[in-house]
Amino acid sequence: MTKENLMGTINETSAWQDITVGGHVYGAGNSEFFNTGDWRVRTPVWDAGKCKQCLLCYPVCPDSSIPAENGKRLDFDFDHCKGCAICARVCPFGAISVVAVGEEAAR
Amino acid sequence: MIEIRWHGRGGQGAKTAALLLADAAFETGLHVQGFPEYGPERMGAPITAYNRLSDGPIRIHSNIYNPDLVVVVDETLLKSVDVAAGLKDTGKLLVNTNSDPESVLRSFPGVKGDIWVIDAMDISIRTIGRNLPNTPLLSAVVRLTGIMGEEAFFKNMEKAFGEKFARKREVIEGNMRAVKEAWASVLQINEQARGKDV
Amino acid sequence: MSRKDRMSGNQAVATAIRQINPDVIAAFPITPSTEIPQYVSSFKAEGLIDTEFIAVESEHSAMSACIGASAAGVRAMTATSSAGMALMYELLYVAASDRLPIVMAAVNRALTGPININADHSDSMGARDSGWIQIYSENAQEAYDNMLMAHRIAEHPDVLLPVMICQDGFITSHAIENIIIEDDEPVRAFVGEYNPPKHLLNPSESLGVGPYSVSAFYMEMKRKQFEAMNSARAVISDVSKDFGARIGRRYGMFEAYRMEDAEMAVLLMSSSAGTGKDAVDALRAKGVKAGLVKLRVFRPFPAKELADVFRGVKALGIMDKSDGFSGNGGPLGAEVRAALCGRPGGAKTCNYVFGLGGRDIRVDDFHVIFGELKGMIDGKQLPDCRYIGVRG
């Protein structure tokens, strides 16, 4: 699927000439261009040592912010994670903890 | 331009007659208008339909207030509708009736134009087998307007019926008899008309 | 090639639709436009068109289906009148802001209150701010011709706006009149194929239509619509010129009838224009410098061009077939006066509300209006707005 990344260039400073006719949205998956990670007030912290790679967290993330490759999850996509912490709730192994933004390093 | 006003009752086909006349006149190369005045459409309620027939394009889009010809499809309307309203002094009034001419004339004391009658019900029952006054009325109207000669009109109608009732020879024949009888039997009944030629 | 025929305005529009052979028609019956989808469905049954006919349960759904179909990349059309159009109002704005080139056959009928089935312009005037292009037709011929031009205007890349082709209910929609019908081939060549570069059903390129528009974007979207409506002027003019060159009947934004040296004039739309022309001719025969402007394109509104044509006019009667209930008259009155304001020319104006709910307007009524305009030139004061053809 071709993706016209026009959406990445249209933002709240765009002139009327530069937005699309009818506000049509070209290409799918445009949420990628919106860094909703900015909205986060709580941050999930992944403990790779405790993680058994059961992947229960992967499908419940509402923002598709838990990337996975070859059957294994990676660390969070913090550009898009909003910190809802649903992943921490479903994790049976206590591998995800939640801390206030700015306190990640302390852990 | 010839302006015609039809008075009938909902369901009697005055609108259809006006559209048929527009069709027939169109075939002669005239510019035509045929339109009904629409209101609440109730069977039996008085309705009005109109025709304009002209050599040139017709621009006007209003009802007709000073007709050259008034056609009364149902004579019971004479009691409730001023059918002759605005009829030109040189105009004609055609009534579908089986009443005697004297009583018809009594309905139009002030009318200066020519008054004509036809018994379209009788003609249609005898020729078509049902009370369908449109065909004989159309024939009478064409004769009174002079838009087509006898021969041309009969030919035109034969073609029209032929297309409409392609497989019903007897229907075509009945309708053609109605057309011809009506053409011959439409009658002037007032004094002013005496001696005039249509 | 063309042929002489006679048919009603509804038949004429249906004939145009048959020749255009749109991909989708979604419609719900309402007097006096009902015959149009009725004819279209019989064309479909006879195999004359391969249009998808969507019988919907309301006009709201009819316009919704048109929006979906148009977004999917096909030609979508509908027909409606009066309350049916009112039930579409919400979606009319959506069609325009989504920039979908839908074409509607509008058969003007009074809006209910009190209920009435006859002609006036209150239905389409209620949609005047919806972002649709509005073109009004005097007779069956114009309704046919305007319909043949509609898609070229709507689908032009500089425009991409929906178009409604209006005619007066019953007065022309149900009146048999002479008309010239063009052959199918040249019509289809004129209308052309519709191949939008982007559409919803393209599997190789995804597209979203009708997104929520936050305050940060809403005004830019409207500014873009404003631009499209402005661009429509040139496109309507070009398409009309091409139609004139290829088909032979010529149209502008409006028709100026005997306006060259006119001292007084009336402006109006649709079927009564011809009636007014008869009055103008009668006055001209007596040496009175009367003229008439029949507005064809109401949206976009040709303000500057109208101001130019009325520059030498001393008294102008602006005739509205709907009352805007501003207390000052109808929408045409307001817009024409706004067009004249601040531009050269000093015509005195009176706004006449006429023909509501099918009230007949006669040549004599035009003579009354012209008589009053003459009075205005002679210094007599007229109210800003008055009803003509009303008892009392």
- The percent range for strand residues of chain C is 15-25%
Distance between the termini of chain B: 17 Å
Through-space gap between termini of chain C: 52 Å
Total strands of chain B: the figure is: 7
CATH architecture of the largest domain in chain C: 3-Layer(aba) Sandwich
Instruction: Tell me which oligomeric state these chains represent.
Output: heterotrimer
Helical segment count of chain B: 6
Which ranges of chain C are low-confidence, i.e. pLDDT below 50, for 5 or more consecutive residues? none
State the gist of this model.
Chain B is of the alpha/beta class. Chain B has 6 helices and 7 strands. In chain C, strand 4 (76-80), helix 4 and strand 5 (103-108) form a beta-alpha-beta unit.
Verbal overview:
With 107 residues, chain A is mostly beta strands. Helix content of chain A is 8%, strand content 15%. Chain A folds into two domains: 1-34, no CATH class; 36-107, Alpha-Beta Plaits (2-Layer Sandwich), CATH 3.30.70. Chain A contains two helices and five strands, in the order ββαββαβ. In chain A, the strands form two sheets. Chain A has a two-stranded antiparallel ribbon with strand order 2-5. In chain A, strands 3-4 form a two-stranded antiparallel ribbon. In chain A, a hairpin with a 2-residue loop joins strand 3 and strand 4 (72-73). The mean pLDDT of chain A is 90. Chain B is of the alpha/beta class. Chain B contains six helices and seven strands, in the order E-H-E-E-E-E-H-E-H-H-H-H-E. Chain B has helices at 14-27, 101-106, 120-127, 134-145, 150-164, 169-185, and strands at residues 2-9, 31-36, 46-54, 69-72, 92-96, 114-118, 187-188. Chain B has a seven-stranded mixed sheet with strand order 2-3-1-4-5-6-7. The two termini of chain B are 17 Å apart. Mean pLDDT of chain B is 92; it is low at 193-198. By secondary structure, chain C is of the alpha/beta class. Chain C folds into two domains: 2-199 and 208-247, Thiamin diphosphate (ThDP)-binding fold, Pyr/PP domains (Rossmann fold, 3-Layer(aba) Sandwich), CATH 3.40.50; 254-387, Rossmann fold. In chain C, 41% of the residues lie in helices and 20% in strands. Chain C has twelve helices and 16 strands. In chain C, strand 6, helix 6 and strand 7 form a beta-alpha-beta unit. In chain C, helix 1 (9-20) packs across helix 2 (35-45) and helix 6 (140-155) packs across helix 8. Chain C is globular. At the B-C interface, helix 1 and strand 2 of B face strand 8 and helix 9 of C. Strand 2 of chain B pairs antiparallel with strand 8 (176-182) of chain C, so a sheet runs across the interface.
